[in-house]
Write a structure and sequence with these properties.
This protein has one domain (17-204): Four Helix Bundle (Hemerythrin (Met), subunit A), CATH 1.20.120. It is built from six helices and no strands. The chain has helices at 5-11, 19-41, 51-87, 93-134, 140-165, 171-204. α4 runs antiparallel to α5 (140-165). The chain starts with a helix and ends with a helix.
Length: 206
């Protein structure tokens, strides 16, 4: 039976997990699917030439899956100081200054974690591409689903970056985060779409 804990917590009114944690969760699903393709390839005579490659990818994917799962918790931890900053009193000029100082500090972590999720998505797509090219043809559609999930995780995490940089007082830092997120989006989405198109062609023969 599927453990509903994360999904039920996500559906609740609790502030975490939220979109960032959900994006990391979807990233973990992408790596799990890619691992399934590798596991279905290993040990098959037809794919003996790529067995070592599959074994190497399984190690990478296991580490990536753990990284995504850790990032779910990291995203929740990064949100905590942000929530506290929003809740600080803002009645006097001194209170407003302290609140803004706390908020600006919290925004850094709130951007860096989703950027880490995005980085992990690009790493996942490298392995997913390998699965789509060399993995068992019986699981080709699963490699395609993995690519779709990795793209969704990438795009989802990017939204957390963009919403937080909009509140940053440090314009130079905000611009660096913005450019980094856009660069990751451009590369990752293009790669995910390329994998999806190749899988679609492979399973429809068109």
């Amino acid at each position: 039976m599927v453990d509903r804990t994360f999904i039920d917590e996500l559906a609740s009114k609790a502030p975490t997990p939220g979109g960032g944690g959900a994006s990391a969760y979807v990233g973990a699903l992408a790596t799990a699917l890619a691992s399934m393709v590798a596991n279905l390839t290993v040990g098959k005579k037809k794919y003996a030439e790529v067995e070592d490659l599959m074994e190497d990818e399984l190690v990478k994917l296991f580490d990536l899956r753990d990284r995504f799962l850790d990032l779910i918790d990291e995203d929740a931890r990064a949100f905590a100081p942000l929530a506290r900053a929003y809740g600080l009193p803002k009645q006097t000029p001194e209170e407003k200054a302290l609140q803004q100082e706390a908020l600006q500090e919290a925004l850094i972590g709130a951007c860096e974690v989703p950027l880490e999720i995005m980085d992990a998505c690009l790493e996942a797509l490298k392995s997913i591409e390998t699965m789509a090219r060399f993995g068992s043809r019986l699981a080709l559609s699963d490699a395609g689903v993995a690519a779709v999930f990795a793209k969704a995780a990438l795009q989802g995490a990017s939204l957390n970056v963009f919403i937080n940089i909009d509140l940053m007082a440090d314009e130079a830092l905000a611009q660096r985060y913005d450019q980094r997120a856009r660069d990751l989006l451009a590369v990752g989405c293009a790669k995910a779409d390329e994998i999806f198109d190749s899988v679609l062609k492979g399973i429809t023969h068109g």
